[in-house]
Amino acid sequence: MKLRDKVLYMSFGAGLVVLGMVLNSLISSDADARGRVKDATFGTVTCRDIIIKDGYKERAHLGLAPNGSAILAMYGKDQIYKVAYLGENTSVNNEMMLLLRSKSKADGRQAMMMIDGSGGRFECRDKVGGQVSGFGATNVHLDGK
Asked: Where are the alpha helices (DSSP H) in 40-130?
C-alpha cells in the first residue's frame, strides 16, 4: 500500500468518526429530568434504605438497621425523637415491637405492642409515662405448674 493510500484511508476513518460525533449531538441528547416528577409507577424497586427528608431533616427511615434487621422509624421535628417505630426491641429480647408515641417529648403518652418471653404483650401509658393498661399472654398451664 502506498503512502498516499494510507493517508487517504486514515482520513476517511477520521471523517467517519467526526461525522458520528456530529450526528450524535444532533439526533440524540442526554436524558435529563426537567421539572418535578409528580407521580411515577414502578414494577419492582430494590434498595437498602428509603429515607424521607423535609429539607435537610430526616423524618422517616424504612430500611435496614446497622445490625441488618428491617426497621421503620418516624421522627419528630428534631429528627432524633422517634414517634413511631417498628422493628427489633434491641433493649430487651431482640424480638419485634411496634411503638407509637406522642409527638411531644414532654408528653409520655404511648402505645406499645411487642413480643416478650410469654408471647404477645400490649401496653398503654399516660401523659406522665405511667402504665394505664396492659395485657399479654402468660405461661399458665392448666395443671397448675
From this structure: none
